Amino acid sequence: MLLTPVLPFPFISVPGNFPHLKSPSFFLIRSSSSPSMDTNPQPKKVAVCGGGVIGVCTAYFLSKNGASVTLIEQSSVACAASGKAGGFLALDWCDGGPVASLARASFNLHRSLAQELNGSESYGYRPLTTLSVSVTESSSSSSSSPNRTGPIPSWVDGPAKSPRTIGSTDSTAQVHPEMFTKTLLSKAMEDYGVELVIGKAERVVMAEGKTIGVVLEDGRVIGAEAAVLALGPWSKRFSVLGSLFRVYGIKAHSIVLEPKEANRITPHALFLTYYPAQGGKPMDPEVYPRPTGEVYICGMSAQAEVPDDPEQITPVPESINALKRVAASVSSHLVEGEAAVKAEQACILPCSEDDVPIIGEVPGIKGCYVATGHSCWGILNGPATGAAMAELVLDGHASIVDLRRFDPGRFGSALKK
């Protein structure tokens, strides 16, 4: 049982008030900001567990709106899917579904955050033209020329056909997800006093039905009046969440290439229908050029077990090789030799049992909140999720997005006693 009733203990102002927290098992990164010494009421203390995009966005908006926030991360910030995702953003691709309002609000928040944080320079924010393209892998060394009757960019010189524009610069954009997450956290630490603790959050502590802190693996306590569990596929670590719903993991593979002629690669995101030379079902890889000169290619996804440590996630060699063949089929600029392979990687995306994010207060536990299950749209929906969670924690309700559809109580399970 991970929620343990205990006697109330004094809340701490910052984790640094505990000298014994500076043990070899974790370290503390402090910002230059310090609490104001005035007669105003003390800010609400919130512990956010999880240093991915959802947790960081939540910490950012909480602290910007006056909360005293401690962000707890087991390994390193953006070490999992938030550092290895594609960073593709779409305004209206979720229209007609339960995530439509969240996606639209978040797309617009990405735009305003990019203006506030100089996103085009600091984390590669830019609008994109997005194409759907069919590619058939050639079994020979030579390949046919693409069909130039459509909007195929010149660098896509493989056997591409049936191009179709599915997103304009008004409706699709991109960020570098790791740089976005770390930029936002740096801003929150420097300007709003967020404290970052590297350590494994083990359980939420409560007294008289209310959250009073989070216990780390080594037994140390971060005092808090509210706790936000933004743990992605690791949500099942907390039995209070596992008793309510199931979050499973989808393992997605990606490679990052650096072409010699990076200036030839235009800002066109490609969603492919890819037919392998050996036959079989078509695949649906995605290609995202980045303003850094890199080209990100992802695909080859399947349900997978979630290891205890995100650093233990390793790619399947066959999946990486398949993505390299996709790259070579799409463009001569992306063939190994013409492009350096900068990364071969995999990450695990958190998916809920009904494929809808889980965002809200945990039933029956005052001050304990959860935000997970965003699947492949975590980077897109991070800002609106964080802003809505901040409103929920500080004001008791969210106004930027109606969170009722995402309520964790929808699964109808009772908490285990």
From TrEMBL:
Top-level lineage group:
Eukaryota
InterPro entries annotated for this entry?
FAD-dep_OxRdtase (IPR006076), FAD/NAD-bd_sf (IPR036188)
Per UniProt, the keywords (alphabetical) are: Oxidoreductase
Biased-composition ranges, Low complexity, are 136-145
- Molecular function GO labels: oxidoreductase activity
Could you tell me which residue ranges the FAD dependent oxidoreductase domain spans?
45-392
Q: Which Gene3D superfamilies match?
A: D-Amino Acid Oxidase, subunit A, domain 2, FAD/NAD(P)-binding domain
Q: Outline the segment boundaries, as ranges, of region: Disordered.
A: 136-172
PANTHER family, per database record: OXIDOREDUCTASE TDA3-RELATED (PTHR13847:SF150), SARCOSINE DEHYDROGENASE-RELATED (PTHR13847)
UniProt-recorded name of the protein = FAD dependent oxidoreductase domain-containing protein
